[in-house]
């Protein structure tokens, strides 16, 4: 099969599964968890020495990074990404950068690494508290920008919605209280058939210890 997606069980891997499902693409799912040892096999390390999922293989192209995978698939197959050079595309990049940096890397992932995975990355209560406060502050921009709109960008579903919902779900799982409009937005997108198929597949394995 041309398209192969490696990875499952996490907030990052569901983004890639969801994009593939939204676009109706056939693909082979290699459902490996991030901490099962499966990202350290020679076969996987030959694809990515980051030892992280998701990884997409499309013929000769090996692509890491969930946002890059979602955007590449949208651009290639027509859907999930606004036209290059448009104002909507500028908003798309703005949302993607914000979500990756302010909701994912600097805040939720810090909590994950230094609280839940403290045995691996070290306990850092001060960093965890700063990350919690950082998330509370940054999520206000999403609240204000989204308002009651059904989609993050313009009047169409896009990759920005995939990333935003994945982080809102992650935040809820960590006990953050979201504004009612953000919760309603998240729940509406959970009704999408593509989300349901992606979630069933993604959550059919465990992330590992
Ligand atoms: N920025 C990357 C993050 C990927 C990432 O950290 N994946 C985690 C699972 S959510 C992983 O594979 N961790 C394994 C490890 O750190 O060894 C993306 O968005 O794809």
Question: Could you explain the architecture of this structure?
Answer:
The chain is of the alpha+beta class. It is 57% helix and 7% strand. It has two domains: 3-81 and 195-202, Glutaredoxin (3-Layer(aba) Sandwich), CATH 3.40.30.10; 87-192, Glutathione S-transferase Yfyf (Class Pi), Chain A, domain 2. The chain has nine helices and four strands; from the N terminus they run βαβαββααααααα. The chain has a four-stranded mixed sheet, covered by helices on one side. Helix 1 links the parallel strand 1 (3-6) and strand 2 (28-30). The protein is globular. The protein starts with a strand and ends in a 7-residue tail after the last helix. Glutathione binds at residues 10, 12, 34, 39, 51-54, 65-66. Glutathione binds next to loops.
Structural class of the helices, strands and pairings?
A: alpha+beta
Helix content estimate: 55-70%
Bound molecules: glutathione
Sheet with the most strands?
4 strands, mixed
Q: Give the radius of gyration.
A: 17 Å
Shape: globular
Beta-strand content bin: 5-15%
Main sheet strand line-up: 2-1-3-4
The CATH architecture of the largest domain would be Up-down Bundle
Question: What is the CATH topology assignment of the largest domain?
Answer: Glutathione S-transferase Yfyf (Class Pi), Chain A, domain 2
> What is the end-to-end distance?
31 Å
Low-confidence stretches: none
**SSE string, helices as H and strands as E:** EHEHEEHHHHHHH
Discrete helix count = 9
User: For this structure, what is the CATH class of the largest domain?
Assistant: Mainly Alpha
Number of domains: 2
Strand segment count: 4
Mean pLDDT: 97
